């Protein structure tokens, strides 16, 4: 399904095309009384009046007295046919109690405490025991319901765990697990049942499939959280789709058998979903028999629930027999009729014949509540017992309302609608984790649907928080509390250590933004700390909350290493490490800002560079990926963590540093041009939006690029080019829909191309030419296919002329340019290709309107800094120590027309990040006696010297004094 389409952010390509061309669980009449619950404060001894916290929230729970201490002899009374897994888990829970000596018997032992387990049929006498303890027997409950009753009999504690059925018995044990507090068991009476009969997940995403062990662990987790459904439809299993007619064999068959057994043991329905729609002949007896053969093989392994997935297919026939039997009248009914007849035959001739639960399906048009011919025909013709899945008003549903569901059920003409909910799936944003809770699902949906399955993330264990939310919501949506549900599952995954629990909450806070939610939430705790930091900084005071928060994030790799659910730690490790690196960068930025306040340019620069180093580490690709070819690609995705809040803080802090040193870009207006692409467009997002001068609009492809795919700008004629900047994805700092492997190329005729550079996993493709080049055409070409079949977004494709305010005769290293020393971005640098030769220099003309009081060099270079007035060069300082920051006072009254760094011959190849001037006085420093030269020497320049004088004979100048306070304006 296009649940989170591989090409990007859930673009429902086929769904929209099809939409153009063509459930209720009845418990509303039951008395549902949910007793408010209060979590006992840590360390407080519970009393009869406090109820334990149980999730999902029981429909009814009341106190039956003081907590019970089950120590000494404890007999688990269970009939021979009582659910074995439930009995096993009861024994495990009881043996963890101090002093409990647990045994299992078919008959009670009056000499000790007793815990009865089973249904009225499997454990004789449990009905009477429940009644004697003040409970109502479970026989009148819906499927999966259970009763817990407790009290004292003959001086001993007695607990009854009675299920409506085996699964209900198992769920009673899951509640018992939560009744244990302070080594005692809460004495309560519980009467509980689910409001939705289908509760669980569907492994239906693109990308790296879950491992065999992860699936088994999911079943254990589902069982504990009272979820009963797992739909098996991983995209890596070719025997579900491309080779759907082929039976399993060998290791594949053995693994499948183990999965089915693992699901059944935890009372999870393993639903086998076949996807034959890409090549099936609906009216073919051979294909019908192939379907039956596949189902029969799975049924022999223990599968009883079957599903036909008709999503993600072209609305077309694949055989003449279908075309003749179902003529296309242009109304969408033809494909609906063929699909419904195929499904009905399966339901009648296989499912009902073998006494199986009703067949399930997802139609080709699976979203939106509005009516259309396909939905009406499909639903009207379909067997009324078949369950129909639906994703909501869109592929992603920020909210699902009762009215929307009611309309959808009417549009599909079904009483058995249930939801395929595309949260927290991340296959369209594989750089992200979604650890925000499930919200905006109407509490009354259960009146209209059979249930919900969540489409989880590529990371199975990181999906557990959201899956637990679904377990809590689908069991009892009327009392679902998103915050409490998320808090409980995070504690469960972290384990009992308070510090680990706190650390996991810190990490979860960094992954709260779900882009389909309005308004969206961005790392709320980190955001609050940053907002407080800026607020007090603007007032000249101090707030420690940000420093504390950053310190906690820095410690995450160590703080979470011992968490209980190690699978979660391993799943999220790339994001945990990146968060720690971002936080270290944040610490350096905070120290940098303090140095700026103190006027300490050297410290501010060192801290900025240290911060940038951590940012660079955080932006390394460390997440693996897998495309439709099934090939695993190691470390190709940059993990995005912090919901953009880290990036925003870094940008703001960096801007203050740039202002502090007077850095601003020497820029030129981009050329106008005509954009084109070898790929198609998604909706109205045309190639022309790449060159409209607006970063808020974009060109968006409707396919993933293959090797050789390109986007291109035609300037109309051959022109000099100084720089190209291609803004991809949704932001310059985060990967998303973009070229992941690209070459930047230019041409004068559109036939012969010259390479400018290669870029991998770069949201911003930016290249500044060492010397201007002549070209009419500039393009970005894919050098390889995108991982995960990601589509491409280009917000702006800027081609700009050269800027003539700087000049040098030093050859730049490959991929570098002298322009990078004047781009206003300290994170970039001009890097020389070779050590310095005599006469090497870098110079620039200060911007108009700036009266230079100080010249600044950020970078590692050696030589003399000079200023020119008229024909006279004056040396105002010498750089000899290799430090990354130097500032020199300009003699008062000097009319500075140009600034030059005359590099010291024989010194190492310079790295110059920025050269600037600022127009404020420094703190008092010794004023050197300037040296002058008026007679230029000859030389050459790679830039435009505008007739300025050449190179003087270097002269010696005293070094500058104490580090000055720097201004916030510059070149």
UniProtKB/TrEMBL annotation:
Keywords: Glycosidase, Hydrolase, Signal
Biased segments, Low complexity type: 930-942
SUPFAM superfamilies noted in UniProt: (Trans)glycosidases, beta-N-acetylhexosaminidase-like domain, Galactose-binding domain-like
GO biological process: carbohydrate derivative metabolic process; carbohydrate metabolic process
Domain spans labelled GH84: 197-478
Pfam families the record matches: F5_F8_type_C (PF00754), Glyco_hydro_20b (PF02838), NAGidase (PF07555)
Signal peptide: 1-40
Ranges where the record places region Disordered: 40-65, 921-971
Active site, per annotation: 312 (proton donor)
Family according to the record: Belongs to the glycosyl hydrolase 84 family.
Record protein name field: Carbohydrate-binding protein
Source organism (scientific name): Cutibacterium acnes (Propionibacterium acnes)
